[in-house]
Amino acid sequence: MHFWLIANAKAGDGSRGQAFWLDHLRQAGLTNVTLCDLGDDDWESQVRPGDRVLVAGGDGSVSRLARVCLEREATLGVLPSGTANDFARNLSLPEDPEALCRLMISGAPRRVDVAWIGEHLFLNVVHIGLGTLPTTQASPRLKQWFGRFSYLAVLLRKLKLQRGFKATIEHAEGRSRERWLTIAIASGAYFGGGQRIPNASLTDGRLTLAAIRHGSLPRLLRLLLITRFTSQPLENEEAVLTLAPTDCRIRLAQHKLVTADGERLGRFKELRFTTTPRALSVIGEPQ
């Protein structure tokens, strides 16, 4: 088993980069580790089954390296260094760097689900509509000042500008064609910088779909605050469609911007979502 440390120098505020994690890993007893930059890919073909690929970055970086681990049958280790770090929450990783590095070195691998939008892997959440705004409009300075709450700041600022979009959501139980403010499809229990999805898990073999219908500004603001600051389920909210499918399809009336794990995917008119149960080896305790 070999250890790899892959760092994204642009993640978060830059304080938890390669040097930070290398120092803590060495203090935890790791002496043999190969260092690589996220921008390089020459190293990927050298990863062997059973190796541990430690990723120092945000959710987007983690998702990219998850595909490498999946293809090379390696184990993914997460060293949270971004703004939201939702996948780290999904794995119940310790916040203390020393304890985390000890876990990365000696912790037993677990297996978690992998979600797909077409051929693109995602670990946390895909957004269509209002939910894409934090990715596209949260400036580096805003992220530095407010951290994961920068996402909420952007949503509050832009909420009144949203007119919604028409889309049809197709799933095993039927179809829903309405005007939506935002649609989110999540794989685990956390997304959006700490929003908790009750009863969701990285190992349940299902996705969680939450679609908010277009409506009055006060009602939408209330829903946004509920999802941000409480674990209150939204199943009984008239304005929200919630599903737990193994797969689903979304057909949009017009091309819309789609983001996955905090990264732009592009503009799409039709999307297919699936999940592969317990496909990825990770270090942590999946929720």
From TrEMBL:
The keyword Plastid does not apply. The keyword Transferase applies. Keywords: ATP-binding, Kinase, Nucleotide-binding, Transferase. One of its GO terms (molecular function) is kinase activity. Residues 51-120 form the DAGKc domain. SMART domains: DAGKc (SM00046). It comes from the Bacteria. Pfam families: DAGK_cat, YegS_C. PANTHER family: SPHINGOSINE KINASE (PTHR12358), SPHINGOSINE KINASE RELATED PROTEIN (PTHR12358:SF54). This is Lipid kinase, YegS/Rv2252/BmrU family. The lineage of its organism: Bacteria, Pseudomonadati, Pseudomonadota, Gammaproteobacteria, Oceanospirillales.
